[in-house]
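Page 42, continued from yesterday. The earlier attempt failed because a stray header line got pasted into the input along with the sequence. Redoing it now with the clean sequence only.
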Amino acid sequence: MTIAATAPQHRPVPRAAGMPVLGNAPALSRDLLGTLTRAFEQHGDLVRLQIGPIAVYLASHPDMAQKILLEGQKDFVKLERLGKQPQGLGLIGGTGLLTNPDFELWRSQRRMIQPIFHRQRLAKMGDKMVQAGQKMLERWESLERIDVDAEMLNVTMDIICQTMFSMDASSVAGQAAQASEVALHFVTKRITSPIKIPIRFPLPGNRKFVRAMSTLHQIVSDLIQNRKDQVGEYGDLLDMLLEARDADTGEAMNAAQIRDELVTVFVAGHETTAHSLAWTWMLLAQHPTVLMKMQLELDAVLQGRIPSLEDIAKLKYTTQVFNESMRLYPAAPIIPRRFEGNLELCGYALDGPARVITSVYNIHRHPDFWPDPHRFDPDRFGPTQSAGRHRLAFMPFGAGSRMCIGNNLAMMEAVLLLAMVGQKYRMELLEPEKIVPHIAITLQPTHGIAMKLIPRA
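This time it went through. Structure tokens are written below.
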């Protein structure tokens, strides 16, 4: 570990030009993704930006990611709470697993929730994933044009509801998805704003966010209320949360903790996989040779039948396609942290207190680790090209102890859905000029991705 007090010999950090007083806040608020990308291209692996009085260091190298996310977890801490006040995603997830900055409480939560994501349990979820995919494909039979991003959001919401809560998503999917989108956009804007107006103030944006969170809280409260007399009958995540006991204290989760965990699953559990799948279909439409190669694998492995979990290990190229899509369009493109004192990072002096953003998006396109980094090439993830690559040159699910707990679930879900859709259709991009990626916590298309469905002969 090389984190220590700053010393004169450390290199100064390049600074991105900004406006007086506001710094880079206007540019970040207007185009967060573009601003962070240009800062990397112009200044290199580490650059200092300003959001008003707040210093923000942008780290875009795997070595820096390793120091921040793996080796420096005591120095670089979660941003979601400052004192007693929730910040960032903490405004949505509260003290849920994704956003809880208290390491000891987080570790206790992780122990309680981890069993639902063990491979034996995941194997039982495969049938529900396939059923949700079939339901979507049946609906597509009467359609010629779709917004593939919206469709992926719907099917992943259905899968989360079926696998985690044993419920039909149709009654709440639309409400939950819309509320999630409003909440994520609000939090992203707030992160990049130098002025944090208290949410209790009745400004239009604040009121919209409060309504969205009220909707999400009502949905999960109804879930808990409806299950109270059936605890233990389903063996899903909700059962586990209601039955969970801390191994050390024997205490159950309180109502607020359960609520926060369920909201986290609703918001994070479907958005990330859905947008990643949407970007994958866009890339496949732009690269017909890759699509053909993937469909040849699907035909050879599946021979026309519905895929199962046992097929995933054989669908190697399909998995590579999804990995390459996540490289170019990582669902979680930035990982924010904060630190208090002056630190050293890979030879640079960091002046605290400040924030640091690990840019997964920039790391995934770093030319030192990815030749011709903007080119879509699933063969990068074949065994030959993968050998010897930096362990954090590719980290779509984060890194370290805070790595996404649902990474295996997401990969299973994605490969199964790619296989089911790829067997039946190829897609043609409509209005490609309208496809603009932007960060609203997740990396998503601003106006969706309109596509024409073309059944395979």
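Notes: The chain is about 50% helix and 15% strand.
Reminder to self: strip header lines before submitting.
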